[in-house]
Structure formats: structure tokens, C-alpha cells
Design a protein that fits this description.
By secondary structure, this protein is mainly α. The protein contains two helices and no strands. Helix 1 runs antiparallel to helix 2. The longest helix is centred in the C-terminal third of the chain and has 32 residues.
């Protein structure tokens, strides 16, 4: 990837940062659902989904970090749409 032009790497970085934000938002929603689970079985299933979501968030953070290391700077990003 280091052979790629910085503009191409930057496109990858932005796309992966946006993916990280989506994964993080999903995990935040699942965390809120844990607190409002109506019964123990639903709570257990929601906790498991939350743990899986957080694993994906952390894995994606590694992807973003690696790409940022290759790029060498943090590119301008589109405004986040929020939650």
C-alpha cells in the first residue's frame, strides 16, 4: 500500500474511519439496550451482542491506526452525522 498515491490511501483512511464510527455507534446503542432489557435472557443476549460489537470496534481501530501510520497524517473528514 505504501506504493499508492497519498490521495488513494487517504480515501481508504476516510472510509475506514467512517466504518469505525458506524461500528462505535452500533456498540453505543447496544450498550443502552443492555440497561433497558426487560428480562435476564434478553439482557444476556444483548450483552453478548455488545461484546461482539466492541470486539469489532477495537479491531477496526487497529485498521484505522495502521492506515494512519502509512498515510502519515490525519486527513480532513466529512462532518459526522451524529447519533
Amino acid at each position: 500500500m505504501r506504493d499508492q498515491p497519498s490521495e488513494e490511501i487517504e480515501r481508504h483512511v476516510v472510509r475506514e474511519i467512517e466504518k469505525h464510527r458506524r461500528l462505535r455507534d452500533d456498540a453505543v446503542m447496544l450498550e443502552a439496550q443492555v440497561d433497558t432489557a426487560a428480562d435476564p435472557e434478553t439482557a444476556r443476549e444483548t450483552i453478548q451482542a455488545y461484546i461482539t460489537a466492541m470486539i469489532a470496534v477495537h479491531a477496526q481501530q487497529t485498521v484505522v491506526s495502521t492506515l494512519l501510520d502509512i498515510l502519515g497524517y490525519i486527513p480532513d473528514l466529512p462532518k459526522s452525522k451524529g447519533h
